[in-house]
């Protein structure tokens, strides 16, 4: 009420000043005209400020998408899923999980936007990548409202779902992942496929070249480990775009844990029917951008290499492509990746967190669905992250790769179809 009375008093002061200008016996006409013009301009500003809600926004409860179109979409599961990437049941389940974190209280002057509508605004932004301006017009809310809703709901999605849909893997989890790669992708002892992608963002203010990557774009880096079912098991988000050539993996939390031995990995043990090779480490598989380490395999370099090395490269590529497919599936679901994110690095990181965990939320329990195919879409703002670290390998790491090469070329580890691919 203080604001109302304050504005009312300002209006009375203007009326008083205007009266004094009119009755002054000694006045300069030019100065009086100037004062009147200034007062008139100020009055218009006050009247504009009194317009608490724009007329278009006043019809939100009747014509906004959430109160009209979306209520109809709930009657058609396929169209609802196309619009939000979630069926109505999954939308409601997600809402129950995050509602306590995104609910806001009504005030005496304004009714708060409810949790369901907040979630709808955020999901629509993720699904389309439309600008905040476009989203605000569709839902008939202010642009500044959308600016506040999207990152806050994205944060709530991550905080509410991460513990269940991307828990920190324990030894038993790593063993289950390895079993999945062995049975589905013929690569035993594989703890996951690893890759990094640049997420293109607008040029951050006063950041210099920190986010400027090798493709001449501004970006943050998403480093991910994916299991045999296309689920993200570990993500590391937010590295500077320029760090692609300087060891993104080594600087990441994942790289540090791998180096320090704090990832809860299983102890070395023989490969299936490969006791003659002795105990072999469990490994992640990556492409040539990654360094060769004891627990991280990369292909043999070069084209003119022996057949046994080509077979190893094929088997590694066969398992590694799962992470590329997972990125492709996520980008197809959330078209925010098809555009440059007009966001700060901090908010872009929140969006990436939300989409990776929503990817798992959607796929959890549907691992055997036909949609487990996909590829990296060249039209997206997801770009290969380039080199992830030094290529200098230790003797131990070289010996580990040699054991896998020998295993895949032996009767105990070979598969018939590998010989058709070299």
UniProtKB/TrEMBL annotation:
Needs which cofactor? a divalent metal cation
Localization: Nucleus
List the molecular function annotations (GO) for this entry. hydrolase activity; metal ion binding; nuclease activity
Q: Name one Pfam family in it.
A: DDE_Tnp_4
Going by the entry's taxonomy, the superkingdom of the source organism is recorded as Eukaryota
Q: Where do the record's region annotations for Disordered lie?
A: 368-388
> What are the UniProt keywords, alphabetically?
Hydrolase, Metal-binding, Nuclease, Nucleus
Major localisation: nucleus
Q: Does the record carry Cell cycle as a key word? A: no
The DDE Tnp4 domain is annotated at 194-360
Q: Biased-composition ranges for Polar residues?
A: 368-382
Q: Which GO terms describe its cellular component?
A: nucleus
Entry-linked PANTHER family? PTHR22930, SIMILAR TO ENSANGP00000010363
The family assignment reads: Belongs to the HARBI1 family.
Q: State the protein's name.
A: DDE Tnp4 domain-containing protein
Organism this protein belongs to: Cyprinus carpio carpio
């Amino acid at each position: 009420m203080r604001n109302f009375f304050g504005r009312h008093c300002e209006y009375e002061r203007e009326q008083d000043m205007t009266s004094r200008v009119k009755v002054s016996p000694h006045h300069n006409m030019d100065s009086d005209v100037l004062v009147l013009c200034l007062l008139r301009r100020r009055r218009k500003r006050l009247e504009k400020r009194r317009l608490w809600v724009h007329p278009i926004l006043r019809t939100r409860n009747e014509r906004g998408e959430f109160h009209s179109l979306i209520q109809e979409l709930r009657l058609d599961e396929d169209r609802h899923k196309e619009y939000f990437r979630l069926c109505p049941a999954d939308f409601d389940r997600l809402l129950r999980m995050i509602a306590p974190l995104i609910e806001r209280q009504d005030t005496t002057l304004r009714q708060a936007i409810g949790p369901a509508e907040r979630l709808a605004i955020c999901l629509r932004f993720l699904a389309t990548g439309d600008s905040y301006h476009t989203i605000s017009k569709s839902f008939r809310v202010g642009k500044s409202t959308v600016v506040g809703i999207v990152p806050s709901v994205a944060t709530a999605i991550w905080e509410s779902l991460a513990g269940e849909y991307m828990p920190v893997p324990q030894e038993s989890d790593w063993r289950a992942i390895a079993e999945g790669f062995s049975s589905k992708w013929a690569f035993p002892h594989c703890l996951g496929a690893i890759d990094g992608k640049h997420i293109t963002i607008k040029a951050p203010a006063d950041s210099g070249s920190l986010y400027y990557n090798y493709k001449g774009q501004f970006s943050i880096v998403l480093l991910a480990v994916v299991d045999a079912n296309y689920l993200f098991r570990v993500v590391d988000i937010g590295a500077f775009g320029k760090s692609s050539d300087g060891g993104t993996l080594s600087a990441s939390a994942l790289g540090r844990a791998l180096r320090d031995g704090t990832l809860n990995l299983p102890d070395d043990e023989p490969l299936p029917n490969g006791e003659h090779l002795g105990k072999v480490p469990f490994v992640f598989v990556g492409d040539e951008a990654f360094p060769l380490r004891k627990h991280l395999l990369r292909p043999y370099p070069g084209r003119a290499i022996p057949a046994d090395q080509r077979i190893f490269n094929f088997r590694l590529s066969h398992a590694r492509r799962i992470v590329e497919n997972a990125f492709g599936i996520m980008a197809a679901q959330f078209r925010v990746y098809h555009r440059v994110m007009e966001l700060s690095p901090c908010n872009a990181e929140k969006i990436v967190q939300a989409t990776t965990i929503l990817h798992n939320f959607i796929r959890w329990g549907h691992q055997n669905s036909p949609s487990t195919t996909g590829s990296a879409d060249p039209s997206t703002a997801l770009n290969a992250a380039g080199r992830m670290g030094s290529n200098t390998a230790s003797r131990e790491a070289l010996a580990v790769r040699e054991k896998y090469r020998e295993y895949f070329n032996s009767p105990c580890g070979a598969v018939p179809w590998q010989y058709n691919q070299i």
